[in-house]
Amino acid sequence: MDIVIGRAVTWWTILRIALEERLVYRGDFALGTLMRFLPIVTQVFLWFAIFQTAQAARGEDSLNDVTLVGYRYQDFVAYYLLTMISRAFSSMPGLASGIALQVREGEIKKYLVQPVDLIGFLLLTRIAHKAVYYIVAAVPFALVFFLCRGYFVSGWPPLGTFVCFVLSLVMSFLLGFFLEAAIGLVSFWFLEVSSLLFVYMLLNFFLSGHMFPLDIVPAPWDTLIDILPLKYLAYFPAAVFLEKIEGPDLVWGLWVEAAWLAFFIVLARFMYWRGVKRYSGFGG
Amino acid sequence: MSEHPSYLGVFRTFLRNSLVREMTFRSNFIIQCISSVSWTLMNVGFYLLIFSVAPGIKDWDKYEFFVFLATTMFVNSIVQTFFMPNAQEFSELIRRGGLDFALLKPIDTQFLISLQRTEWSSMSNFLAGAILLGVSLYHLIGRETDPLQVTPLMVILYVFYILCGVAILYSLMISLSATSIWLGRNQTLYNFWFYITNFSRYPMEIYQGTYGTPLRLLFTFVVPVLVVVNVPARILAKPFSPETGIDWALAGFAVVATIGSLVASRWIFRRALLSYRSASS
């Protein structure tokens, strides 16, 4: 029993320290969050122009009758706004490069001699960072979504869908974490992972649905997107909210996401275990 | 010995030194080339996807828009090659007090600060842009309805307006980085730069309506980033169409905007230098 309490106290302390550290820069943070919506402004104009052109070409009377790959204009804007939320959960700035740095500089030794587990520690710090981020970013996010509420034509999704949306978000956070942690742990073998990380970022940017709804992707490539776990990092939660994925597809999608998550948890654990065996630290 | 330093000679030395430095780590250079080209390819891929489902963006059809995109690539790659590394270096110089050494040199400080380093690897995007432009022009010249005719005057004007665009972006960049003399740090300003130039990457007529029109006017007449790509791209892609083609008033304004930006940035730079107090050692 004492062991469990001891552990809980340790984890709680880590979480609290990380929270306090994070709240130091809250003003800059809130402003930065608001700025991050600016690129969407140009996307909104771009897609409006595209839809207008399509409307003229098809001779439709109203812009609302025009759909591209099943999305109305409003859905496109709503999609971009929603991917901001999924990205807020799934993006892990500095995680993989941080792990690589710790391995390279030998800082990782402290996890080997202290009764603190590296992945657990990083996960807690990340949860704290994200929690603070959501608290501070809630105001700008709420403001933008309130101003843009007209784009959500169907309004709030039914409760069941919303629960699935939240579930997919929580899993996308964990998936993003363990996926990037696994990339960072490659540094036990390679020391430098920046080029690997670059490839990951590039694929992520394009194939996660951050830039466009993935439904737009034509035939051979959509299979690739279905095979990769990247779509769960941005596209999937947004599409769930917009009720683009429903019924059995939704359940199946959530299971696949869970399976990917389990895979990367096991992979990260396994890599850490093998890596530590391989690791040798000198001096210090 | 002449009283003035040979600016061209100094610039040539800068270019050579940067090239030597980049060639010292050759594989790094190649990786950087590949990485910047891959981002560009992603961007091209994005528009290919758009044109696979939509007929066009306003009056820009697929290849006309790709001329626009290639123009963006030219302007951005030139700015990134010659000015971006220096602007980043500049705020570091201010923060650490290294600007003292630049001020002591018997050469114009703005010249020295702006051109010291050249990032040759960014030129790879220039090449990518050239390929894209070539392919697009091939399709535009060869199309059946209303084929494009490229005249020598168009080419001269195209190059001229690309250089104007580069000058406008340079002025904006050096003004932004000069403000770090007053502000100490300017991480947010770099984001600001990114977000402002983001507006310049699309045809200006997409900014319309209640919010769009003020934005278009703001980014044309106050911060003239919209003329940077729009004017040269229009000259090459749609020179003769009376309604949507190049508006000569806008082209004339672009020249005024270029001169105005250069003068304004020079003024801001000098004002900023007067406030420089060096960093304590």
Write up this protein:
The complex is a heterodimer of chains A (284) and B (281). Chain A is an all-alpha fold and 284 residues long. The relative contact order of chain A is 0.13. The longest helix of chain A has 32 residues, at 247-278. Chain A is built from 13 helices and no strands. Chain A is 74% helix and 0% strand. The model of chain A has no long low-confidence stretch (mean pLDDT 87). Chain B has helices at residues 7-24, 26-53, 62-82, 84-96, 99-104, 109-115, 123-142, 152-178, 180-183, 187-199, 209-222, 226-237, 248-274. In chain B, 35% of the residues are buried. The mean pLDDT of chain B is 87.
Low-confidence stretches of chain B: none
Order of helices and strands of chain A: HHHHHHHHHHHHH
Overall form of chain B = globular
The largest sheet of chain B is: none
Morphology of chain A: elongated
Largest protein-protein interface: A-B, 29 and 32 residues
Count the E strands of chain A: 0
Beta-strand residue percentage of chain A: under 5%
How confident is the prediction overall: mean pLDDT of chain B? 87
Structural category of chain B is mainly alpha
Strand portion of chain B: under 5%
Descriptive tags:
heterodimer; A: 284 residues; mainly alpha; 13 helices; 74% helix; 0% strand; elongated; B: 281 residues
